[in-house]
User: What shape does this take?
Amino acid sequence: MNEFELIKRYFSRASGRADVVVGVGDDAAVLDVPPGLQLVAAVDTIIEGIHFPAGTSAVDIGYRALAVNLSDIAAMGAEPRWITLSLTTPRADASWLEGFAAGLYELAARHDVALVGGDTCKGPLVISVQVLGTIEYGRALLRAGARPGDAIYVSGVPGEAAAGLALLQSNAERDSASEHLVRRFLRPEPRLNLGRSLRGVASAAMDISDGLVTDLTKLCAASHCGARLDLERLPLSTPMHARFTEAQVRHFTLAGGDDYELLFTVPREHEPQLSAFDVPCTRVGEIVAGDGVGGFLHGEKIALPSAGFDHFREEDT
Ligand SMILES: [Mg+2]
Assistant: This one.
Protein backbone atom coordinates (compact mmCIF):
# COMPACT_ATOMS: atom_id res chain seq x y z
CA MET A 1 0.00 0.00 0.00
CA ASN A 2 1.50 3.35 -0.99
CA GLU A 3 0.88 6.62 0.82
CA PHE A 4 -1.85 7.70 -1.59
CA GLU A 5 -3.77 4.43 -1.10
CA LEU A 6 -3.28 4.57 2.67
CA ILE A 7 -4.75 8.06 2.94
CA LYS A 8 -7.58 7.24 0.56
CA ARG A 9 -8.48 4.06 2.43
CA TYR A 10 -8.23 5.22 6.05
CA PHE A 11 -8.29 9.01 6.24
CA SER A 12 -10.72 10.28 3.61
CA ARG A 13 -14.09 10.08 5.35
CA ALA A 14 -16.45 12.88 4.40
CA SER A 15 -17.14 15.26 7.26
CA GLY A 16 -20.29 16.98 6.11
CA ARG A 17 -18.93 20.34 7.23
CA ALA A 18 -19.97 23.10 4.83
CA ASP A 19 -16.89 25.18 5.73
CA VAL A 20 -14.54 22.64 4.09
CA VAL A 21 -14.17 23.84 0.48
CA VAL A 22 -11.33 21.42 -0.34
CA GLY A 23 -10.42 18.64 2.12
CA VAL A 24 -8.11 15.62 1.93
CA GLY A 25 -6.66 14.92 -1.53
CA ASP A 26 -5.26 18.18 -2.84
CA ASP A 27 -1.97 19.88 -1.97
CA ALA A 28 -3.65 21.83 0.81
CA ALA A 29 -7.08 22.25 2.33
CA VAL A 30 -9.24 25.29 1.58
CA LEU A 31 -11.39 26.33 4.51
CA ASP A 32 -14.00 29.02 5.03
CA VAL A 33 -13.43 31.17 8.09
CA PRO A 34 -16.64 33.11 8.74
CA PRO A 35 -16.19 36.88 8.90
CA GLY A 36 -15.81 38.34 12.38
CA LEU A 37 -14.20 35.22 13.83
CA GLN A 38 -10.59 34.72 14.85
CA LEU A 39 -8.68 31.56 13.92
CA VAL A 40 -7.36 29.56 16.92
CA ALA A 41 -4.56 27.06 16.13
CA ALA A 42 -2.83 24.42 18.26
CA VAL A 43 -0.59 21.42 17.56
CA ASP A 44 0.47 18.56 19.80
CA THR A 45 2.63 15.52 19.17
CA ILE A 46 2.44 12.19 20.97
CA ILE A 47 5.28 9.67 20.79
CA GLU A 48 5.17 5.98 21.64
CA GLY A 49 7.15 5.26 24.79
CA ILE A 50 7.03 8.90 25.92
CA HIS A 51 3.39 9.98 25.91
CA PHE A 52 1.82 6.54 25.91
CA PRO A 53 3.25 3.09 26.68
CA ALA A 54 4.26 0.76 23.85
CA GLY A 55 1.44 -1.74 23.40
CA THR A 56 -1.36 0.83 23.76
CA SER A 57 -4.16 -0.14 21.39
CA ALA A 58 -4.38 1.69 18.05
CA VAL A 59 -7.94 2.84 18.74
CA ASP A 60 -6.90 4.42 22.06
CA ILE A 61 -3.90 6.12 20.40
CA GLY A 62 -6.12 7.58 17.68
CA TYR A 63 -8.60 8.89 20.24
CA ARG A 64 -5.95 10.31 22.54
CA ALA A 65 -3.98 12.02 19.74
CA LEU A 66 -7.04 14.11 18.97
CA ALA A 67 -8.26 14.51 22.57
CA VAL A 68 -5.09 16.26 23.76
CA ASN A 69 -5.42 18.77 20.93
CA LEU A 70 -9.13 19.42 21.37
CA SER A 71 -8.31 20.11 25.02
CA ASP A 72 -6.15 23.08 23.99
CA ILE A 73 -9.04 24.49 21.95
CA ALA A 74 -11.35 23.93 24.95
CA ALA A 75 -8.91 25.84 27.15
CA MET A 76 -9.25 28.84 24.83
CA GLY A 77 -13.04 28.69 24.94
CA ALA A 78 -12.97 28.17 21.17
CA GLU A 79 -14.93 26.02 18.69
CA PRO A 80 -12.89 23.27 17.00
CA ARG A 81 -13.54 22.96 13.24
CA TRP A 82 -10.73 21.25 11.35
CA ILE A 83 -7.72 19.01 11.99
CA THR A 84 -4.68 17.95 10.04
CA LEU A 85 -2.74 14.80 10.88
CA SER A 86 0.91 13.88 10.54
CA LEU A 87 1.35 10.15 11.14
CA THR A 88 4.73 8.45 11.29
CA THR A 89 4.41 4.69 11.72
CA PRO A 90 6.88 1.79 11.44
CA ARG A 91 4.63 -0.10 8.99
CA ALA A 92 1.38 0.27 7.13
CA ASP A 93 -0.39 -2.44 9.10
CA ALA A 94 -4.05 -2.60 8.00
CA SER A 95 -5.61 -3.57 11.33
CA TRP A 96 -3.55 -0.97 13.22
CA LEU A 97 -4.52 1.78 10.78
CA GLU A 98 -8.17 0.75 10.93
CA GLY A 99 -8.12 0.95 14.74
CA PHE A 100 -6.26 4.25 14.78
CA ALA A 101 -8.68 5.82 12.28
CA ALA A 102 -11.67 4.45 14.26
CA GLY A 103 -10.46 6.09 17.50
CA LEU A 104 -9.65 9.39 15.79
CA TYR A 105 -12.91 9.60 13.81
CA GLU A 106 -14.99 8.55 16.86
CA LEU A 107 -13.91 11.65 18.77
CA ALA A 108 -13.90 13.85 15.65
CA ALA A 109 -17.52 12.94 14.94
CA ARG A 110 -18.54 13.59 18.55
CA HIS A 111 -17.26 17.16 18.29
CA ASP A 112 -18.07 17.73 14.59
CA VAL A 113 -14.44 18.19 13.57
CA ALA A 114 -13.28 17.49 9.99
CA LEU A 115 -9.95 15.87 9.09
CA VAL A 116 -8.92 18.04 6.13
CA GLY A 117 -5.37 16.98 5.33
CA GLY A 118 -2.22 15.34 6.49
CA ASP A 119 0.91 13.43 5.80
CA THR A 120 2.22 9.94 6.48
CA CYS A 121 5.82 8.76 6.89
CA LYS A 122 7.64 5.56 7.81
CA GLY A 123 9.51 5.64 11.12
CA PRO A 124 9.03 5.26 14.90
CA LEU A 125 5.41 5.79 15.96
CA VAL A 126 4.84 9.55 16.26
CA ILE A 127 1.49 11.30 15.79
CA SER A 128 1.01 15.06 15.40
CA VAL A 129 -2.43 16.56 15.16
CA GLN A 130 -2.99 20.20 14.38
CA VAL A 131 -6.37 21.58 15.27
CA LEU A 132 -7.90 24.75 13.91
CA GLY A 133 -10.85 26.41 15.54
CA THR A 134 -12.56 29.74 15.73
CA ILE A 135 -13.77 32.20 18.31
CA GLU A 136 -15.65 35.46 18.23
CA TYR A 137 -13.32 38.40 18.01
CA GLY A 138 -11.54 39.11 21.33
CA ARG A 139 -13.38 36.40 23.31
CA ALA A 140 -10.58 33.81 23.66
CA LEU A 141 -9.77 32.69 27.21
CA LEU A 142 -6.13 33.45 27.90
CA ARG A 143 -3.72 32.48 30.68
CA ALA A 144 -3.00 36.14 31.29
CA GLY A 145 -6.16 37.48 32.89
CA ALA A 146 -6.11 36.36 36.53
CA ARG A 147 -6.21 39.05 39.23
CA PRO A 148 -5.62 38.88 43.01
CA GLY A 149 -8.83 37.82 44.72
CA ASP A 150 -10.02 35.60 41.82
CA ALA A 151 -10.97 32.07 42.85
CA ILE A 152 -9.03 29.17 41.30
CA TYR A 153 -11.04 26.22 39.97
CA VAL A 154 -10.32 22.82 38.43
CA SER A 155 -12.78 20.65 36.52
CA GLY A 156 -13.23 16.96 37.25
CA VAL A 157 -10.74 15.03 39.36
CA PRO A 158 -7.13 15.84 38.48
CA GLY A 159 -4.54 13.11 39.02
CA GLU A 160 -6.62 10.12 37.99
CA ALA A 161 -5.00 9.83 34.56
CA ALA A 162 -1.49 9.83 36.05
CA ALA A 163 -2.61 7.13 38.47
CA GLY A 164 -4.02 5.19 35.51
CA LEU A 165 -0.74 5.48 33.63
CA ALA A 166 1.15 4.18 36.69
CA LEU A 167 -1.20 1.16 36.77
CA LEU A 168 -0.77 0.60 33.02
CA GLN A 169 2.98 0.54 33.47
CA SER A 170 2.88 -1.88 36.38
CA ASN A 171 1.58 -5.41 36.36
CA ALA A 172 -0.92 -4.51 39.06
CA GLU A 173 -4.05 -6.58 39.35
CA ARG A 174 -7.02 -5.04 37.51
CA ASP A 175 -10.22 -4.20 39.33
CA SER A 176 -13.01 -1.67 38.78
CA ALA A 177 -11.01 1.14 40.43
CA SER A 178 -7.99 0.53 38.22
CA GLU A 179 -10.15 0.18 35.09
CA HIS A 180 -11.62 3.61 35.82
CA LEU A 181 -8.17 5.16 36.29
CA VAL A 182 -6.67 3.54 33.16
CA ARG A 183 -9.62 4.75 31.12
CA ARG A 184 -9.07 8.28 32.41
CA PHE A 185 -5.55 8.09 30.92
CA LEU A 186 -6.50 6.45 27.62
CA ARG A 187 -9.73 8.35 27.01
CA PRO A 188 -9.46 11.90 28.36
CA GLU A 189 -12.60 13.94 27.75
CA PRO A 190 -11.75 17.31 26.17
CA ARG A 191 -13.77 19.89 28.12
CA LEU A 192 -15.12 21.78 25.11
CA ASN A 193 -18.54 22.50 26.61
CA LEU A 194 -16.98 23.80 29.80
CA GLY A 195 -14.63 26.02 27.78
CA ARG A 196 -17.63 27.52 25.95
CA SER A 197 -19.39 28.14 29.26
CA LEU A 198 -16.35 29.91 30.65
CA ARG A 199 -16.38 32.67 28.00
CA GLY A 200 -17.20 35.88 29.79
CA VAL A 201 -17.04 34.07 33.17
CA ALA A 202 -13.39 33.04 33.69
CA SER A 203 -10.64 35.65 33.90
CA ALA A 204 -7.96 33.14 32.80
CA ALA A 205 -7.92 29.50 31.72
CA MET A 206 -5.67 26.69 30.54
CA ASP A 207 -5.80 22.92 30.36
CA ILE A 208 -3.82 20.72 32.74
CA SER A 209 -1.36 18.72 30.67
CA ASP A 210 1.75 18.84 32.86
CA GLY A 211 0.27 18.76 36.36
CA LEU A 212 -1.83 21.08 38.50
CA VAL A 213 1.03 22.86 40.30
CA THR A 214 3.20 23.23 37.19
CA ASP A 215 0.34 24.52 35.06
CA LEU A 216 -0.96 26.85 37.77
CA THR A 217 2.58 28.24 38.03
CA LYS A 218 2.46 28.97 34.27
CA LEU A 219 -0.93 30.65 34.55
CA CYS A 220 0.35 32.81 37.43
CA ALA A 221 3.47 33.80 35.48
CA ALA A 222 1.34 34.83 32.49
CA SER A 223 -0.97 36.85 34.77
CA HIS A 224 1.87 38.39 36.83
CA CYS A 225 0.46 37.15 40.12
CA GLY A 226 0.74 34.30 42.62
CA ALA A 227 -1.61 31.61 43.90
CA ARG A 228 -2.61 30.01 47.16
CA LEU A 229 -3.61 26.36 46.80
CA ASP A 230 -5.74 24.92 49.65
CA LEU A 231 -4.97 21.22 49.50
CA GLU A 232 -7.89 20.11 51.67
CA ARG A 233 -10.20 21.45 48.95
CA LEU A 234 -8.82 19.19 46.19
CA PRO A 235 -11.47 16.84 44.81
CA LEU A 236 -11.21 13.34 46.26
CA SER A 237 -10.91 10.35 43.97
CA THR A 238 -12.36 7.19 45.49
CA PRO A 239 -10.73 4.95 42.82
CA MET A 240 -7.31 6.55 43.46
CA HIS A 241 -7.67 6.04 47.21
CA ALA A 242 -8.63 2.41 46.59
CA ARG A 243 -5.34 1.71 44.84
CA PHE A 244 -2.76 4.16 46.20
CA THR A 245 -1.42 5.57 49.47
CA GLU A 246 -2.36 9.06 50.66
CA ALA A 247 1.10 10.37 49.64
CA GLN A 248 0.78 8.87 46.14
CA VAL A 249 -2.71 10.29 45.71
CA ARG A 250 -1.48 13.75 46.67
CA HIS A 251 1.45 13.43 44.26
CA PHE A 252 -0.78 12.37 41.34
CA THR A 253 -3.28 15.13 42.11
CA LEU A 254 -0.69 17.91 42.30
CA ALA A 255 1.92 16.75 39.80
CA GLY A 256 0.24 14.26 37.46
CA GLY A 257 -0.43 15.55 33.96
CA ASP A 258 -2.50 13.83 31.29
CA ASP A 259 -5.98 14.55 32.66
CA TYR A 260 -6.74 17.44 30.34
CA GLU A 261 -9.04 18.99 32.88
CA LEU A 262 -9.40 22.77 32.79
CA LEU A 263 -7.75 25.06 35.33
CA PHE A 264 -9.33 28.51 35.46
CA THR A 265 -9.78 31.60 37.58
CA VAL A 266 -13.07 33.34 38.27
CA PRO A 267 -13.74 36.82 39.68
CA ARG A 268 -15.91 36.47 42.78
CA GLU A 269 -18.91 38.12 41.18
CA HIS A 270 -19.02 35.45 38.47
CA GLU A 271 -18.77 32.43 40.80
CA PRO A 272 -22.55 31.83 41.09
CA GLN A 273 -22.67 31.11 37.33
CA LEU A 274 -20.58 27.97 37.83
CA SER A 275 -23.45 26.10 39.51
CA ALA A 276 -25.22 25.87 36.12
CA PHE A 277 -22.29 24.01 34.48
CA ASP A 278 -22.65 20.33 33.59
CA VAL A 279 -19.08 19.46 34.66
CA PRO A 280 -18.24 19.48 38.37
CA CYS A 281 -15.72 22.22 39.13
CA THR A 282 -14.00 22.63 42.47
CA ARG A 283 -12.60 25.80 44.00
CA VAL A 284 -9.06 24.89 45.09
CA GLY A 285 -7.52 28.24 45.98
CA GLU A 286 -7.18 31.90 45.31
CA ILE A 287 -5.05 34.21 43.20
CA VAL A 288 -2.85 36.46 45.34
CA ALA A 289 -0.43 39.31 44.72
CA GLY A 290 3.22 38.31 44.21
CA ASP A 291 4.41 35.26 42.30
CA GLY A 292 4.61 31.47 42.52
CA VAL A 293 2.25 28.91 44.00
CA GLY A 294 2.05 28.31 47.76
CA GLY A 295 0.46 25.15 49.16
CA PHE A 296 -1.58 25.12 52.36
CA LEU A 297 -3.21 22.27 54.27
CA HIS A 298 -5.84 23.52 56.75
CA GLY A 299 -4.07 26.88 56.77
CA GLU A 300 -0.60 25.47 57.30
CA LYS A 301 2.01 26.00 54.60
CA ILE A 302 3.38 22.80 53.11
CA ALA A 303 5.88 21.99 50.37
CA LEU A 304 4.51 21.33 46.87
CA PRO A 305 6.02 19.09 44.22
CA SER A 306 8.14 21.56 42.26
CA ALA A 307 7.69 20.54 38.64
CA GLY A 308 5.59 18.32 36.40
CA PHE A 309 6.58 16.87 33.08
CA ASP A 310 9.10 18.85 31.08
CA HIS A 311 10.66 17.22 28.01
CA PHE A 312 13.88 19.15 28.25
CA ARG A 313 14.71 18.59 31.91
CA GLU A 314 17.61 16.17 32.31
CA GLU A 315 15.83 14.17 35.04
CA ASP A 316 13.00 13.27 32.72
CA THR A 317 14.98 12.00 29.75
MG1 LIG B 1 -2.63 23.38 26.91
Observations:
- The chain is about 30% helix and 25% strand.
- The longest strand covers residues 37-47.
